[in-house]
Amino acid sequence: MKILVVGGGGREHALCWAIAASPLITGLFCAPGNAGIAQEAECVDIAAEDIDGLVRFAIDQAIEFVVIGPEVPLVAGLADSLKEVGIRSFGSSAKAAMMEGSKGFMKDFCARHAIPTAAYSRFTDVASARAFVAAHGAPIVVKADGLAAGKGVIIAETIEQANEAIDDMLDGNAFGEAGAEVVIEEFLEGEEASFFALCDGTFALPLVSAQDHKRVGDSDTGPNTGGMGAYSPAPIVTEAMVETIMKTIITPTMDGMAAEGAPYAGVLYAGLMIKDGQPRLLEYNVRFGDPECQVLMMRLRSDLLPALMAAADGVLSDFDLRWYDEIALTVVMAANGYPGSYDKGSEIKGLEAAAALPDVTVFHAGTASGPNGKILATGGRVLGVTALGKTVAEAQARAYQAVDAINWPGGFCRRDIGWRAVMREQG
Ligand code: AMP
After folding, report:
1. Which ligand 1 atom is the nearest neighbour of the CA of 185?
2. Contacts 24+ apart (CB under 8 A), 154-159
3. Ligand 1, pocket-test mutation among 103, 110, 140, 141, most atoms within 8 A of CB
4. Less Cβ crowding at N or C end of the chain, within 10 Å?
5. Whose C-alpha lies nearest to ligand 1, atom 16?
């Protein structure tokens, strides 16, 4: 089969790496890809947001199956456009992608279907939003309704901070159209975990859990990022917890979406807050997380491709995926300055030495090939150095050994990825 993967980050490198191992493929393309993906797939210079360009390429190359990585093309309707020309794809319809595309839609949906989540209200005008904050007090959470590349959530410690976020989003145009409406919600306490399920419109197959590290600095300090590292599984997501998550969150979502005429097919990524054994939904994403996808793909033992196709074809209930018991852990290496402004074009050395270490894979998130085979950093998050281990401590030690083999003065990483789980292991 000829396959096209859409996207060019660490998530898509992990997807291409897994798909390239499938005996089913005869050709693997990635648009736009990156220097690491180029080792697995033929990279095509079409942006992930260029819906028409991608559809044209898929027709011209007789692509049989498209795997859509990021949320932007999903929300923009790439899966629908491919369907119109008879090409199958893995990824939700635009209508179902509203689960991530509009936080207000997601919250109203949860309210209609009694899915546990934070109490909330939706606002388009500053005065009523401020009045709501005044009535509820702080801490409180202000969220831009639309897609804001992970930056549209403000955890306000004080009423003043909440008001500032409201002003920025509704009046200051901080997120453009995405912030023309805000959701204001109750601040939830607990431990966060990510949970993933493959969905085929009616049936959801649970995958595994992960925990990520959003803050840029060690000990969870500094500004939020797209994610500085992750590990899987999340110790808090026990087998009993998986059952609770499926029963109270994932299955009612599948049933509700189908009943509302927008059956959900693709991967459902639930961001959860867990307290006293009760999971509550913080957010839904309609794609794999990045870097969570890297740890998931390292742990996956089965062929990924047939599972993605079964999700697209509505036959997932016949499926059973097998996983390695080992822990996978990813350390993200980012360009100096990230998540603020950062330099591009610095050279990365030592990648081969790092990748040669046992049970280590270095996924590329933001790289390009330079002259004479050089690998250059082109993004904020640049590498996802991933290792397997029998314990979190072992996976962590291996990942940092690989990080230390990489010679890249233009980049940095957190040195404590997995700390919470390592502390648990050590009792
Ligand atoms: P979201 O994009 O909605 O997941 O929000 C990003 C991050 O903000 C989450 O991973 C949480 O750490 C935090 N967050 C979001 N909503 C809440 C909430 N209601 N209470 C506490 N923390 C939250």
Report:
1. 19
2. 155/187, 159/133, 159/134
3. 141
4. C
5. 282
pTM over 0.90: yes
> Around Cβ 247, how many Cβ atoms within 10 Å?
10
More confident of the two residues 168 and 113: 113
Q: Are 404 and 362 in contact (CB under 8 A)?
A: no
CB 378 within 8 A of CB 10: no
Instruction: Give the model's confidence band at 224: pLDDT under 50 very low, under 70 low, under 90 confident, else very high.
Output: confident
Residues 352-390, buried b or exposed e (16+ Cβ, 10 A)?
eebbebebbbbbbbbbbeeeeeebbbbbbbbbbbbbbbe
| SS3 category, 63 | coil
- The beta-strand segments (E) located in 51-172 are 65-68, 88-90, 120-123, 140-144, 153-156
Position 150 confidence tier, pLDDT thresholds 50, 70, 90: confident
**ω into 235 cis (within 30 of 0):** no
Q: Are 115 and 158 in contact (CB under 8 A)?
A: no
**Per-residue pLDDT tens for 183-218?**
999 999 999 999 999 999 999 999 999 999 999 999
Going from the C-alpha of 353 to that of each of 61, 372, 397, 398, the distances in angstroms are: 36, 18, 16, 13
Tell me the C-alpha distance between 126 and 348, whole Å.
47
List pLDDT tens digits, range 227-256.
Answer: 999 999 999 999 999 999 999 999 999 999
